[in-house]
Sequence to fold (420 residues):
Amino acid sequence: MGRTPAGETREKVFAFVRDRLLAGQPPTVREVQEALGFRAVRTAQQHLERLVEEGRLVAGRHRARGYRLPGSSEGARTVLAPVLGRVPAGALDAAVEDPDGYLPVDARGAAAGDLFALRVRGESMTGVGILPGDLVIVRRQPTAANGDLVVARVGDEATVKTFRSRGRRVELRPENPAFAPIVLDAGAVAILGKVIEVRRILGAHGGTGA
Amino acid sequence: MGRTPAGETREKVFAFVRDRLLAGQPPTVREVQEALGFRAVRTAQQHLERLVEEGRLVAGRHRARGYRLPGSSEGARTVLAPVLGRVPAGALDAAVEDPDGYLPVDARGAAAGDLFALRVRGESMTGVGILPGDLVIVRRQPTAANGDLVVARVGDEATVKTFRSRGRRVELRPENPAFAPIVLDAGAVAILGKVIEVRRILGAHGGTGA
DNA sequence: GACAATACCATACATTTGAATGCCATTGCA
DNA sequence: TGCAATGGCATTCAAATGTATGGTATTGTC
Fold:
């Protein structure tokens, strides 16, 4: 009664732990033991210690289900941003109550409630790689700096544009030569937030369509 | 000392637990207690029990960090895709061992281990709105259909291109008139996977750069 | 005021779970 | 042969953690 060939077993241990972690369900040492068919807790424990030594896992001392993948243990924090279906005509909060779904966002430095997402309509921003149907993830803020990509409400409509202010006047500039900039008085524009991320979900089927 | 207004607190408890779950780090009752500033474990415990009653959480009996989101087996499910820093020269698994970080991905229909992400270099795909520095999220698969956006390995390099096959020959087509298609024998190309999503993280500062 | 409902607290208890102690079997090498 | 290295086992201990008991203060309603 000895052992198993090469480092095969440890590879299986790592794969098991990694998959569980990626699925959001960190395993216990005993779950590893059972999954791999060890008859002693210690055996699973030793493999895990080994993986930590090799830097492939990170252990939290005395924490239940404390193993993590290196790099994901710190900083990375995921929150859900609601995808607003209707254009927010009034207060944003009203629209959030009935979202089209949620997008997981790696939010470092942005509180959960401060994020939302909108689907882009029109081709006014194709010059900066934002195509119709893309999702923009927005962090709420009432102001913007020149050059910021913002979501602004003009009248009843919300649009994604590049922000630029000239004194009392605000210019919402499209990034497509076929469209003209919108210039308004600052009082006629409400900045809903700043675009912090752009996503295009291609899905399982279909090509680029180009 | 009494309490806090309406059901505000419970909402915060739920948000905290949900965020932690989505981040792949289920919290303990005491972590909830501490995060919300309760002075008794029991208080956090009661809120959690309440959330379970309301069906907003699911509890695992006597399991450490046992709270889950209901229906997490189906519906929106977030997994973390490793961002591969180096171009995968050999097997993909080797590169996954040392990722640059992880991206939260809403993976419906894709197993956790089947996803990874790469940072795009070069301007060969600007025609379909993929700019240098963008992140592509890829689902591993060894084959592709005409028109698919794929990550392929040619020699030591991995590139993002539109896939097209003509008999024994494979064409990797850039989406930028300034670049020429790459035409190779099928044996000289290895399909690493298919691009299912494109992301551009603009961050808190800076404009569009266009 | 009586009473239910809500929110919270202090503490104890039981289970889960990470870590430690000590030992055996196989392999490879000097 | 001797011996270090590896892979495994059985068991125990201690920390982490879910759960339960019992009590106080505030709010709202009849």
About this structure: Chain A touches chain B through 62 residues (CB under 8 Å). Residues 1-3, 28-30, 41-42, 45, 49, 59, 61-66 of chain A lie near DNA strand C (CB under 10 Å from a C1'). The first strand of chain A starts at residue 78 and ends at 83.
